Amino acid sequence: MNNTHTPSSGAFTADLDKVSKEHYRHELHQLHIELVKLQRHIIQQELKTLIIFEGRDAAGKDGSIKRIVEHLSPRETRVVALGKPTERNLSSWYFQRYVAHLPAAEEIVIFNRSWYNRAGVERVMGFCTDQQLSDFFNTVVNFEQMLVRSGIRLIKFYLDISKAEQTERLAARRSDPLKQWKISPIDQVALEHWADYSQARDDMLNRTHHVDCPWYIVRADHKKTARLQIIRTILNLHQYADAEPQYQSINAQIIRPFSPSYCHDGFLAQS
Fold it and tell me: Quick one: pLDDT at residue 3?
């Protein structure tokens, strides 16, 4: 990642780089222009791009994805959010149902949660066995390297928020009639399993961050800031015609490639 501003980590806090509504709207508009340029490049070069969004419940995955795709061509852009696996899915190779949704040439595909369900919610909630979890960790890196060798550009984001912020957002979902579709039984127990999810997160990141497909950690307590930095990171990771460098610089206080030190130095939320 280049053009990166890198201050010290510090304790996890919700007060990092808040932006005004006016600044947010202006910068988002400019970033949308850059995303359209990037998509034109992907189409012209017949590239295949896959972006994975993982993170804590209510961390802002839906909102971030919505802003990314807002002005992209719907013919070459797909958002994949798979539901509960069917009986057939459960009897198939674990990665099989995801393979059908991988990008073809010229496409951008965004997974709103992915095969990493196994390392997160399935692990914490007991929806998979210890052997299934072990098999996942033993194969996922090789699987992703195979995708990269096939020509897929794979970008992985993990959105992290503090316990206080998650508490507030989950409460807002329950009181907002327009967000009722976001409520699930898993959300209801997310706070009860906060420590379990933290342990699962740390284990997943440590075991699946690799040079071919690194994780990018997003401190997402402030939604608008996180969205802007996520888009900047996507732009930063590509070279395309007529790019505006000022919209490719990254604030590493908000987003940066994973390092094991983040699990104990405060960059990832522990409480």
Answer: 57
